[in-house]
Request: fold
Amino acid sequence: MQTALANNGATLTVGALESLTELNKALGDSLRLQILRLLKSESFGVLELCRILDIRQSALSHHLKILATANLVSTRREGNSIFYRRAFLSDDDLYRDIKESVFDQVDLLLIAKSAEKKISQIQLERAQQSLSFFNKNADKFREKQGLIVAHDDYASVLHDVIDSLGLSDKATVLEVGPGEGLLLTELAAKFRKLIALDNSKEMLEKSRESIGKAKLSGVQFILGDTAVARKQEVSSDLIIFDMVLHHISSPAKTFRDSAALMQKNGSLMIVDLSTHDQDWVRESCGDLWLGFDESDLNHWAQKAGLIPGQSSYLGLRNGFQIQIRVFKKL
Reply:
Protein backbone atom coordinates (compact mmCIF):
# COMPACT_ATOMS: atom_id res chain seq x y z
CA MET A 1 0.00 0.00 0.00
CA GLN A 2 1.33 3.42 -0.89
CA THR A 3 1.99 5.63 2.10
CA ALA A 4 2.85 9.24 2.56
CA LEU A 5 3.82 11.44 5.48
CA ALA A 6 4.33 9.83 8.86
CA ASN A 7 3.17 11.66 11.98
CA ASN A 8 3.80 10.41 15.53
CA GLY A 9 4.38 6.91 14.26
CA ALA A 10 1.18 6.85 12.15
CA THR A 11 1.21 6.84 8.37
CA LEU A 12 -1.29 8.34 5.98
CA THR A 13 -2.13 6.57 2.77
CA VAL A 14 -2.19 8.49 -0.48
CA GLY A 15 -5.96 8.02 -0.43
CA ALA A 16 -6.14 9.64 2.99
CA LEU A 17 -4.16 12.64 1.76
CA GLU A 18 -6.47 12.95 -1.24
CA SER A 19 -9.43 12.96 1.15
CA LEU A 20 -7.79 15.71 3.17
CA THR A 21 -7.23 17.70 -0.02
CA GLU A 22 -10.92 17.29 -0.94
CA LEU A 23 -11.93 18.40 2.55
CA ASN A 24 -9.79 21.54 2.37
CA LYS A 25 -11.19 22.31 -1.08
CA ALA A 26 -14.76 21.94 0.20
CA LEU A 27 -14.11 24.27 3.12
CA GLY A 28 -12.31 26.88 1.01
CA ASP A 29 -15.45 28.63 -0.22
CA SER A 30 -17.75 30.97 1.69
CA LEU A 31 -20.89 29.82 -0.09
CA ARG A 32 -20.22 26.20 0.84
CA LEU A 33 -19.77 27.26 4.45
CA GLN A 34 -23.14 29.03 4.25
CA ILE A 35 -24.70 25.80 2.98
CA LEU A 36 -23.28 23.88 5.95
CA ARG A 37 -24.68 26.53 8.28
CA LEU A 38 -28.16 26.24 6.74
CA LEU A 39 -28.03 22.46 7.18
CA LYS A 40 -27.22 22.69 10.89
CA SER A 41 -30.44 21.00 11.97
CA GLU A 42 -32.60 21.06 8.85
CA SER A 43 -32.69 19.28 5.52
CA PHE A 44 -33.55 21.14 2.33
CA GLY A 45 -34.22 20.20 -1.24
CA VAL A 46 -32.06 21.58 -4.03
CA LEU A 47 -34.72 24.02 -5.21
CA GLU A 48 -35.32 25.18 -1.64
CA LEU A 49 -31.62 25.90 -1.19
CA CYS A 50 -31.63 27.78 -4.50
CA ARG A 51 -34.39 30.02 -3.14
CA ILE A 52 -32.67 30.62 0.15
CA LEU A 53 -29.26 31.41 -1.37
CA ASP A 54 -30.59 33.09 -4.53
CA ILE A 55 -28.40 30.95 -6.74
CA ARG A 56 -28.90 29.03 -9.98
CA GLN A 57 -29.49 25.29 -9.65
CA SER A 58 -26.50 24.37 -11.81
CA ALA A 59 -24.16 26.44 -9.65
CA LEU A 60 -25.62 25.07 -6.42
CA SER A 61 -25.33 21.49 -7.65
CA HIS A 62 -21.62 22.08 -8.27
CA HIS A 63 -21.09 23.20 -4.68
CA LEU A 64 -23.19 20.36 -3.25
CA LYS A 65 -21.18 17.81 -5.21
CA ILE A 66 -17.93 19.14 -3.71
CA LEU A 67 -19.41 18.99 -0.19
CA ALA A 68 -20.68 15.46 -0.79
CA THR A 69 -17.30 14.30 -2.12
CA ALA A 70 -15.72 15.52 1.11
CA ASN A 71 -18.40 13.64 3.10
CA LEU A 72 -19.68 16.85 4.65
CA VAL A 73 -23.25 16.44 3.38
CA SER A 74 -25.39 13.44 2.56
CA THR A 75 -28.61 13.00 0.63
CA ARG A 76 -31.96 11.30 0.90
CA ARG A 77 -34.51 10.89 -1.83
CA GLU A 78 -38.04 12.14 -1.22
CA GLY A 79 -39.95 10.93 -4.25
CA ASN A 80 -38.54 12.83 -7.20
CA SER A 81 -36.67 15.31 -5.01
CA ILE A 82 -33.24 15.07 -3.40
CA PHE A 83 -32.86 16.52 0.11
CA TYR A 84 -29.51 17.42 1.63
CA ARG A 85 -28.43 17.37 5.24
CA ARG A 86 -25.15 17.40 7.08
CA ALA A 87 -23.37 14.08 7.03
CA PHE A 88 -23.26 12.08 10.24
CA LEU A 89 -19.63 11.75 11.29
CA SER A 90 -18.39 8.23 11.95
CA ASP A 91 -15.74 7.20 14.46
CA ASP A 92 -13.51 5.78 11.72
CA ASP A 93 -13.39 9.09 9.82
CA LEU A 94 -9.73 10.19 9.92
CA TYR A 95 -10.80 13.83 9.85
CA ARG A 96 -13.76 13.69 12.20
CA ASP A 97 -12.15 16.12 14.66
CA ILE A 98 -11.55 18.64 11.87
CA LYS A 99 -15.13 18.36 10.61
CA GLU A 100 -16.61 18.63 14.11
CA SER A 101 -14.52 21.74 14.75
CA VAL A 102 -15.61 23.27 11.45
CA PHE A 103 -19.28 22.53 12.18
CA ASP A 104 -18.95 24.15 15.60
CA GLN A 105 -17.40 27.29 14.10
CA VAL A 106 -19.86 27.47 11.21
CA ASP A 107 -22.75 27.24 13.66
CA LEU A 108 -21.59 30.52 15.20
CA LEU A 109 -22.29 32.33 11.92
CA LEU A 110 -25.46 34.37 11.71
CA ILE A 111 -27.97 33.56 8.99
CA ALA A 112 -28.86 36.61 6.92
CA LYS A 113 -32.28 38.09 7.63
CA SER A 114 -33.28 37.59 4.00
CA ALA A 115 -32.37 33.90 4.21
CA GLU A 116 -34.25 33.47 7.49
CA LYS A 117 -37.32 34.98 5.86
CA LYS A 118 -37.10 32.55 2.94
CA ILE A 119 -36.64 29.60 5.30
CA SER A 120 -39.73 30.63 7.23
CA GLN A 121 -41.66 30.89 3.97
CA ILE A 122 -40.56 27.41 2.88
CA GLN A 123 -41.58 25.91 6.22
CA LEU A 124 -44.90 27.75 6.01
CA GLU A 125 -45.54 26.36 2.54
CA ARG A 126 -44.78 22.84 3.75
CA ALA A 127 -47.12 23.26 6.73
CA GLN A 128 -49.92 24.73 4.61
CA GLN A 129 -49.65 21.82 2.17
CA SER A 130 -50.17 19.35 5.02
CA LEU A 131 -52.89 21.38 6.73
CA SER A 132 -54.80 21.77 3.46
CA PHE A 133 -54.84 18.00 3.03
CA PHE A 134 -56.27 17.40 6.50
CA ASN A 135 -58.90 20.13 6.18
CA LYS A 136 -60.11 18.60 2.91
CA ASN A 137 -59.98 14.98 4.09
CA ALA A 138 -61.03 15.10 7.74
CA ASP A 139 -64.03 12.82 7.10
CA LYS A 140 -62.04 10.14 5.32
CA PHE A 141 -58.61 10.38 6.90
CA ARG A 142 -58.80 6.99 8.61
CA GLU A 143 -59.56 5.39 5.26
CA LYS A 144 -56.59 7.09 3.63
CA GLN A 145 -54.25 6.33 6.54
CA GLY A 146 -55.39 2.73 6.34
CA LEU A 147 -53.78 2.48 2.91
CA ILE A 148 -50.47 2.38 4.78
CA VAL A 149 -51.18 1.10 8.28
CA ALA A 150 -54.15 0.69 10.62
CA HIS A 151 -53.91 1.66 14.29
CA ASP A 152 -54.67 -1.90 15.36
CA ASP A 153 -51.59 -3.14 13.48
CA TYR A 154 -49.24 -1.70 16.10
CA ALA A 155 -51.44 -0.51 19.02
CA SER A 156 -50.54 -3.39 21.38
CA VAL A 157 -46.79 -2.80 20.94
CA LEU A 158 -47.27 0.95 21.33
CA HIS A 159 -49.07 0.48 24.65
CA ASP A 160 -46.41 -1.98 25.83
CA VAL A 161 -43.80 0.73 25.27
CA ILE A 162 -45.93 3.33 27.06
CA ASP A 163 -46.48 1.00 30.01
CA SER A 164 -42.73 0.30 30.22
CA LEU A 165 -42.11 4.00 30.94
CA GLY A 166 -43.59 3.51 34.41
CA LEU A 167 -45.73 6.66 34.38
CA SER A 168 -48.39 7.10 37.03
CA ASP A 169 -51.98 7.84 36.11
CA LYS A 170 -51.35 11.41 37.32
CA ALA A 171 -48.77 12.06 34.59
CA THR A 172 -49.50 14.72 31.98
CA VAL A 173 -49.53 13.29 28.46
CA LEU A 174 -49.55 15.39 25.30
CA GLU A 175 -50.58 13.86 21.99
CA VAL A 176 -49.72 15.93 18.93
CA GLY A 177 -52.00 15.40 15.95
CA PRO A 178 -54.52 13.02 17.56
CA GLY A 179 -56.56 12.79 14.36
CA GLU A 180 -59.85 11.02 14.96
CA GLY A 181 -58.89 10.29 18.55
CA LEU A 182 -58.23 6.54 18.48
CA LEU A 183 -55.07 6.66 20.60
CA LEU A 184 -56.30 9.66 22.57
CA THR A 185 -59.32 7.68 23.75
CA GLU A 186 -57.11 4.79 24.81
CA LEU A 187 -54.79 7.16 26.68
CA ALA A 188 -57.73 8.81 28.44
CA ALA A 189 -58.47 5.45 30.05
CA LYS A 190 -54.92 5.39 31.51
CA PHE A 191 -54.13 8.98 32.44
CA ARG A 192 -56.12 11.65 34.23
CA LYS A 193 -54.62 14.63 32.40
CA LEU A 194 -54.30 14.66 28.62
CA ILE A 195 -53.61 17.44 26.15
CA ALA A 196 -54.66 17.07 22.51
CA LEU A 197 -52.78 19.42 20.18
CA ASP A 198 -53.70 19.76 16.50
CA ASN A 199 -53.38 22.59 13.99
CA SER A 200 -56.44 21.36 12.06
CA LYS A 201 -59.70 22.57 13.59
CA GLU A 202 -61.63 19.84 11.79
CA MET A 203 -59.38 17.03 13.06
CA LEU A 204 -59.34 18.42 16.59
CA GLU A 205 -63.14 18.39 16.59
CA LYS A 206 -63.05 14.73 15.52
CA SER A 207 -60.92 13.97 18.59
CA ARG A 208 -63.27 15.91 20.83
CA GLU A 209 -66.23 13.91 19.50
CA SER A 210 -64.42 10.61 20.15
CA ILE A 211 -63.70 11.56 23.76
CA GLY A 212 -67.32 12.65 24.20
CA LYS A 213 -68.72 9.41 22.77
CA ALA A 214 -66.49 7.40 25.09
CA LYS A 215 -67.76 9.51 28.02
CA LEU A 216 -64.22 10.28 29.10
CA SER A 217 -62.87 13.48 30.65
CA GLY A 218 -59.64 15.14 31.62
CA VAL A 219 -58.65 16.13 28.08
CA GLN A 220 -57.61 19.68 27.17
CA PHE A 221 -57.90 20.55 23.47
CA ILE A 222 -55.50 23.10 21.96
CA LEU A 223 -55.70 24.34 18.38
CA GLY A 224 -52.17 24.89 17.05
CA ASP A 225 -48.73 23.31 16.84
CA THR A 226 -45.84 22.80 19.27
CA ALA A 227 -44.89 26.48 18.98
CA VAL A 228 -48.39 27.42 20.20
CA ALA A 229 -48.08 24.94 23.06
CA ARG A 230 -44.79 26.57 24.09
CA LYS A 231 -46.45 29.98 24.18
CA GLN A 232 -49.11 28.52 26.46
CA GLU A 233 -46.34 27.08 28.66
CA VAL A 234 -47.58 23.52 28.34
CA SER A 235 -45.53 21.03 30.34
CA SER A 236 -45.80 17.26 29.98
CA ASP A 237 -44.27 13.99 31.15
CA LEU A 238 -44.84 12.25 27.83
CA ILE A 239 -45.27 13.63 24.32
CA ILE A 240 -46.53 11.32 21.58
CA PHE A 241 -46.41 11.79 17.82
CA ASP A 242 -48.38 8.85 16.43
CA MET A 243 -47.93 8.71 12.65
CA VAL A 244 -47.70 12.50 12.61
CA LEU A 245 -44.06 13.54 12.15
CA HIS A 246 -44.10 12.82 8.42
CA HIS A 247 -46.80 15.49 8.08
CA ILE A 248 -44.76 18.20 9.85
CA SER A 249 -42.82 20.79 7.86
CA SER A 250 -39.77 20.93 10.15
CA PRO A 251 -39.09 17.76 12.18
CA ALA A 252 -35.91 19.28 13.61
CA LYS A 253 -37.81 22.26 15.05
CA THR A 254 -40.47 19.89 16.37
CA PHE A 255 -37.82 18.04 18.39
CA ARG A 256 -36.57 21.32 19.84
CA ASP A 257 -40.11 22.44 20.72
CA SER A 258 -40.87 19.06 22.26
CA ALA A 259 -37.77 19.20 24.45
CA ALA A 260 -38.94 22.59 25.75
CA LEU A 261 -42.40 21.15 26.51
CA MET A 262 -41.06 18.15 28.43
CA GLN A 263 -40.53 18.02 32.16
CA LYS A 264 -37.27 16.71 33.58
CA ASN A 265 -37.01 12.95 32.97
CA GLY A 266 -39.85 13.26 30.48
CA SER A 267 -40.16 11.16 27.33
CA LEU A 268 -40.80 11.88 23.68
CA MET A 269 -42.32 9.02 21.70
CA ILE A 270 -42.17 8.97 17.91
CA VAL A 271 -44.31 6.41 16.09
CA ASP A 272 -43.68 6.69 12.37
CA LEU A 273 -42.64 4.97 9.18
CA SER A 274 -39.08 4.01 8.45
CA THR A 275 -37.64 5.42 5.23
CA HIS A 276 -39.45 4.14 2.13
CA ASP A 277 -39.81 5.01 -1.56
CA GLN A 278 -43.61 4.95 -1.96
CA ASP A 279 -44.08 8.45 -3.40
CA TRP A 280 -47.84 7.92 -3.92
CA VAL A 281 -48.43 8.63 -0.21
CA ARG A 282 -47.77 12.33 -0.80
CA GLU A 283 -50.97 12.83 -2.76
CA SER A 284 -53.06 10.05 -1.22
CA CYS A 285 -52.18 10.60 2.44
CA GLY A 286 -50.75 14.14 2.58
CA ASP A 287 -47.27 12.97 3.63
CA LEU A 288 -44.48 15.55 3.42
CA TRP A 289 -41.70 13.05 4.21
CA LEU A 290 -41.24 9.45 3.09
CA GLY A 291 -40.50 8.05 6.52
CA PHE A 292 -37.33 8.64 8.54
CA ASP A 293 -33.94 7.04 9.03
CA GLU A 294 -33.05 6.07 12.57
CA SER A 295 -29.96 8.27 12.29
CA ASP A 296 -32.08 11.32 11.35
CA LEU A 297 -34.25 10.95 14.44
CA ASN A 298 -31.17 10.45 16.63
CA HIS A 299 -29.53 13.54 15.14
CA TRP A 300 -32.55 15.78 15.74
CA ALA A 301 -32.91 14.43 19.26
CA GLN A 302 -29.26 15.07 20.05
CA LYS A 303 -29.50 18.65 18.79
CA ALA A 304 -32.53 19.13 21.05
CA GLY A 305 -30.69 17.78 24.09
CA LEU A 306 -32.50 14.44 24.18
CA ILE A 307 -30.99 10.97 24.36
CA PRO A 308 -32.29 7.85 22.58
CA GLY A 309 -34.11 5.30 24.70
CA GLN A 310 -35.77 2.05 23.77
CA SER A 311 -37.12 1.32 20.32
CA SER A 312 -39.25 -1.21 18.52
CA TYR A 313 -39.60 -1.96 14.81
CA LEU A 314 -42.56 -3.67 13.15
CA GLY A 315 -42.57 -4.88 9.56
CA LEU A 316 -45.94 -4.70 7.81
CA ARG A 317 -47.24 -7.05 5.15
CA ASN A 318 -47.48 -4.24 2.60
CA GLY A 319 -43.73 -3.57 2.81
CA PHE A 320 -43.80 -0.57 5.15
CA GLN A 321 -42.04 -0.65 8.51
CA ILE A 322 -43.23 1.09 11.68
CA GLN A 323 -40.66 2.38 14.16
CA ILE A 324 -41.53 3.25 17.76
CA ARG A 325 -38.76 5.38 19.27
CA VAL A 326 -38.43 6.87 22.74
CA PHE A 327 -36.19 9.84 23.56
CA LYS A 328 -35.52 11.01 27.12
CA LYS A 329 -34.89 14.41 28.67
CA LEU A 330 -32.47 14.16 31.58
